[in-house]
Recover the amino acids of this structure.
């Protein structure tokens, strides 16, 4: 008489979850950076007079746009 035993190791749900979370966070960071870059480009395209109407100077654009995302 023969006995056969098979053992399988379940996939670590924590590992898969961390991988998916890491990929998601990376995609969100890319999306956020792209949005902020477009905002900077749009403000840079304005004239100095239009910027002044918004209460901005050209040299303050980056600080204004990125101040909500990064500590500047």
């Amino acid at each position: 008489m023969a006995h056969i035993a098979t053992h399988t190791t379940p996939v670590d749900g924590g590992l898969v979850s961390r991988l998916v979370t890491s990929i998601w966070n990376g995609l969100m960071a890319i999306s956020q950076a792209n949005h902020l870059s477009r905002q900077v480009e749009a403000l840079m395209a304005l004239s100095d007079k239009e910027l002044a109407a918004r209460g901005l100077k050209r040299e303050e654009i980056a600080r204004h746009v990125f101040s909500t995302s990064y500590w500047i």
